[in-house]
Write a structure and sequence with these properties.
The complex is a heterodimer of chains A (about 750) and B (about 140). With about 750 residues, chain A is mainly beta. Chain A contains 8 helices and 43 strands. In chain A, about 5% of the residues lie in helices and about 55% in strands. The chains are: A mainly beta (about 750), B alpha+beta (about 140).
Chain lengths: ~750, ~140
């Protein structure tokens, strides 16, 4: 009997609770502008009950009292608060969420290896949206990247804020990634730009500065992460077909062709959800006759993606991405001469290449957004270079990359991201010799939020490389950063990061002759290392219908033992006989000081919408004496002090007008071998005199006009290098003169 | 998790303080300690140190400083080891390109280096052998 009373009281209390206040609140959360469902939105009531929205934006939870306050929170959106009176068993509450200032609230993943608002980063990042570069008739990732204010790509070699010079295309100090997985070739350590799947890219994230803590060797100078698009609730199809031709070069004596130099490309991509599956496919075909003799290219690229969300275990997803491509091309290496043959390749260096590439990326993720996320990812990458004429330069390489990453939200105060990665690479080549490489790394990053609006980040990585079973030393690298939201739209940041790059197999072992240029191997070339630091401020702008942001940063980097190809008299490693040529050497000690400003403003008026954006970067790149640590008077090679980009995009009814201006100042210094009386004519005939007259910086203007023919189809015309400016990248590499292209594109 | 984090930090500290990449090697000490005096300067097997000789300007003292600077006869410039310290590369404004030399012998009292250098007139490389004694 004594048990009956409490039991009865419990039953009565439960009954009353359920009768009075156990109503269910349910609904859907969606983007107020697009109507798209938003998943993983936090929904928290004032009595500490809550849930998150599912993949279709739906939520449901039991209310704890008659009247409750609910807050809806999601990164990149303004929080929504509601007070709800529970008067029925089920209360429907749909929420439309507004994005905050778009430029501040873009979601990125590269900087901290987990989703973050761009305004809250501790490092500088550029974001390129696919919608931006597709409308500018850009078919090549290299062209896209080099047309940023703070980045230059010299013959395939990317340099961010002057962090890298030009070392003949090998050993990139900027790491390219597709969805966070490295895509650098295992042999030359370079970026295979032509195989990056632009047809299925959602956005490109560029971190400026040493990023080795999160991404390891090769991220010494920064990273470029190509993020592929996820399927949305509506199937999405995009396509274009384009053709164009080059005009006459400014120097008419360089014109060598009688028939038009034509380039064409076509692309198709489709993404859709099928039940719990996401499926995507992309295809690009390209043919370029080129404005230069013996520099043509044909390319086919195919990508496929599959993702399955487990219906029984919420948050579990797995899938497979495949990127592949084949190209037949002739790279341009040495010109014939400056007077008549700057657009003709010297026949001694002509070598046709058939290159194939494939990357297969299986992955598995388990995501409990409010607590943890586990990712297991891998990439099997295969590349094959065949030179029908110079078969000794053939190479075949494959690599297997695998990583585990765990992200844990310990409390509101602390989050931890940690993981381990492994890369195995195997190269078979007469050019480099046969080699096997291994890389092991462990990384960890801590994010602390000690106060509201303040974020501190610190990360460590320990990495070891081995080549042909010989272990290199264990390398620890460190990074730290701070971000403080000083006002509603004002974010102040500071960061320091160490960088590191292990030499590529090409730098150690390449041995060949290209025209009059001989390359010597140097198996003793050592790793490069350095650090970069910056402080910056990002200011959001919201004035009436004008929104946008401005960003200012001051930065510095210091790198030691940077590898350059040095011309000298070298003994042949086999015969011991001396000959002249290039060898990779740890020779450059570099410091780069600079500042950068970028902005983006969005104006709306009636039927007209204009986006004005741009950036200016100033650098002072100088060598230093490692013994005294004092700067010398020598500028670093292949750097420019000033670079500027301005872009205006205007949409008016069915018309679209894009106007782009690029300016880069002169190259401050180049390899002595191109200027030295003893060697210059042998390598690049006529270059010395040309350089004296033409190394003056350049101004480029691109114009694009588009017209929306129907809801789906847009026709556009692009005039690139409208001023027909004559300009050069690395020595002997004359860049494209004026060209016109017509494109039909569609999206539905 | 806490233990893993501590282990990670210890590993980093250990590797940070256990690596001393800049330690001076035996060859570095042998080369930079004495001032060297030219003993024989041969071009294609014949003495080239006399007046008007191809190696006349290398005659005299040579010093390889620890900070990478130095003087080599009348030339002032920089030097560095290369190829696992089997080569010495000398750069001066007076030479058209960096001069790579192979170390044939390096002891506390003797330095012998060989190289070849272009003869701009004939185009045929000149084989050079230079011997120095410690002063």
């Amino acid at each position: 009997m004594r048990y009956y009373f409490p039991l009865a009281a419990l039953i009565i209390t439960s009954f009353l609770n359920s009768a009075i206040s156990q109503g269910v609140i349910e609904g859907r959360v969606y983007d107020s502008h697009t109507g798209e469902s938003i998943h993983s939105v936090y929904i928290i009531s004032n009595d500490n009950r809550g849930t998150v929205t599912d993949e279709n934006g739906f939520y449901s939870f039991k209310a704890g009292s008659d009247t409750i306050g609910i807050i809806f929170q999601f990164i990149g959106y303004k929080s929504e608060k509601r007070t709800v009176n529970i008067i029925t068993d089920t209360t429907r509450l749909d929420i439309a969420m507004d994005m905050d200032i778009k430029e501040l609230d873009q979601i990125v993943v590269s900087a901290d290896r987990t989703e973050r608002r761009v305004a809250e980063l501790t490092v500088s990042m550029d974001i390129l949206k696919s919608s931006d570069f597709l409308k500018n008739h850009i078919t090549d990732a290299q062209e896209l990247i080099t047309k940023s204010s703070s980045i230059e790509v010299l013959d395939g070699q990317a340099s961010i804020r002057g962090g890298s010079g030009f070392s003949y295309g090998v050993g990139s100090r900027v790491l390219a990634l597709i969805d966070g997985l490295p895509v650098v070739s295992p042999d030359a350590g370079n970026i295979k730009w032509q195989f990056l799947p632009l047809e299925n890219i959602e956005q490109i994230e560029i971190i400026k500065g040493a990023s080795s803590v999160l991404y390891g060797s090769s991220a010494l100078n920064g990273i470029i992460n190509f993020r592929t698009a996820d399927a949305t609730s509506h199937p999405e199809t995009r396509f274009y077909a384009e053709t164009g031709m080059f005009g006459k070069p400014q120097n008419s004596s360089w014109k060598w062709w009688n028939t038009s130099r034509i380039f064409s490309s076509a692309s198709f991509s489709h993404l859709r959800k099928l039940g719990h599956n996401d499926i995507g496919i992309g295809l690009t075909l390209l043919s370029d006759n080129s404005y230069r003799k013996y520099n043509d290219e044909k390319l086919a690229r195919l990508s496929f993606r599959f993702k399955h969300r487990n219906e029984k275990i919420k948050g579990l997803a797995y899938g497979l991405n495949i990127s592949s491509g084949i190209t037949r091309k002739t790279d341009f290496i040495l010109w014939e001469d400056a007077e008549y043959g700057a657009l003709k390749q010297d026949t001694s260096s002509v070598s046709e290449l058939t290159g194939t590439f494939m990357a297969v990326d299986p992955y598995l993720s388990f995501d409990k957004s409010d607590r943890f996320r586990h990712d297991i990812r891998a990439r099997f990458q295969l590349s094959d270079n065949r030179f029908p004429v110079r078969i000794n330069n053939n190479s075949n390489a494959y690599s297997l990359y695998a990583e585990y990453q765990g992200s844990f939200r310990i409390s509101d105060l602390l989050s931890i991201t940690a993981g381990a990665a492994e890369t195995y690479s195997n190269v078979r080549s007469n050019f480099y010799g046969d080699h096997e490489g291994m890389n092991f790394a462990g990384f960890s990053q801590f994010e602390v939020n000690p106060f509201h609006r303040l974020k501190l980040v610190a990360g460590l990585r320990v990495e070891q490389n081995s080549l042909d079973k010989k272990n290199d030393r264990i390398v620890p690298v460190f990074r730290t950063g701070i971000n403080w939201q000083a006002a509603e739209y004002t974010f102040i940041r500071g960061s320091f990061g160490q960088g590191y790059r292990y030499p590529s197999i090409a730098e150690k072992y390449a041995s060949t002759t290209l025209g009059s240029v001989k390359i010597f191997p140097n198996p003793y070339v050592d790793a490069e290392s350095g650090w970069s630091t910056e402080i910056g401020i990002k200011q959001g702008v919201k004035l009436g219908k004008t929104t946008g942001q401005a960003d200012l940063s001051i930065f510095m980097s210091k790198n030691s033992d940077m590898i350059e190809y040095v011309f000298s008299n070298y003994p042949d490693p086999v015969t011991g006989l001396f000959d002249f040529g290039f060898q990779a050497t740890n020779v450059e000690q570099s410091k780069v000081y600079g500042f950068e400003t970028e902005f983006s403003l969005n104006f709306s008026s009636g039927n007209m919408n204009t986006i004005l954006s741009g950036g200016y970067t100033y650098i002072y790149p100088v060598e230093f004496n490692p013994a005294s640590n004092s700067n010398t008077d020598t500028y670093l090679k292949y750097r420019r002090k000033h670079s500027l980009k301005l872009e205006s995009n205007t949409f008016y009814k069915k018309f679209q007008f894009n106007f782009l201006v690029y300016f880069k100042s002169k190259i401050l210094n180049i390899d002595d071998v191109f200027l030295n009386e003893m060697t210059r004519e042998q390598i690049l005939p006529g270059f010395y005199d040309y350089w004296q007259d033409h190394n003056t910086g350049y101004l480029l203007i691109d114009e694009i006009i588009g017209y929306k023919i129907s809801k789906i189809i847009t026709a556009s015309v692009a005039i690139k290098n409208a001023l027909n400016t004559e300009y050069m990248g690395r020595p002997g590499d004359i860049q494209p003169h004026r060209n016109v292209s017509l494109r039909l594109s569609g999206e539905f | 998790m806490k233990n893993l984090t501590l282990l990670f930090i210890f590993a980093v500290l250990f590797t940070t303080f256990s690596c001393n990449k800049d330690a001076e090697s035996e060859r570095f000490k042998l080369l930079t300690t004495p001032t060297w005096s030219s003993d024989s300067l041969l071009a294609n097997g014949a003495d080239a140190s006399g007046p008007g000789g191809f190696l006349e300007d290398f005659k005299g003292d040579a010093k390889f400083n620890k900070d990478g600077t130095g003087y080599f006869g009348i030339y002032e410039g920089t030097w560095r080891f290369a190829y696992d310290e089997t080569q010495i590369v000398i750069e001066t404004d007076s030479l058209p390109i960096p001069l790579t030399t192979q170390i044939a012998e390096l002891t506390a009292s003797s330095l012998k280096i060989t190289t070849s250098f272009p003869n701009i007139v004939t185009g045929i490389p000149i084989k050079i052998r230079m011997t120095f004694k410690a002063k």
